[in-house]
Amino acid sequence: MEYDFTKIMQQKHKVYTVRGVPIPFAKNGVSIQQMVVVGLVFLVLIILGIFIYIQGIDFLVSVMKNAWLIIIIAVGVLIWTLFSLNWDRKNFLIYLVDRFRFKKNKYRQYEHGELVEFPLDYVVKYETERR
After folding, report:
1. pTM exceeds 0.70
2. Is the pLDDT confidence value at 26 over 60?
3. Half-sphere exposure of 71 (CA within 13 A, CB side)
4. ∠ at Cα 15 (12, 17), nearest 5°?
């Protein structure tokens, strides 16, 4: 019986511990790709924050000072969305177009892939024939 080495060779490089301490909420490890993307996003945010402070844009300075936690959470959600799209092998632009189509066609009813011509509040009445 032959062993399938292609499955092993396609595994990503992962980090499971930091100096012997396991990474919380990451039992399966954190891939190098995830660490690089998260690091780059936060580096861009820090550089943007420094630029805002140097330029002295009052509104953005107050947003950075008062809403830093919300910004970190929003960036986390954005990164999570991008990685889940990567997991499903989807394109980000196609994802945005599909979300726009969903919002646009929110009140249209489809059954078996076909558009139902009756409005949602329409009551269908069946007449029974007497025999």
Report:
1. no
2. yes
3. 16
4. 160
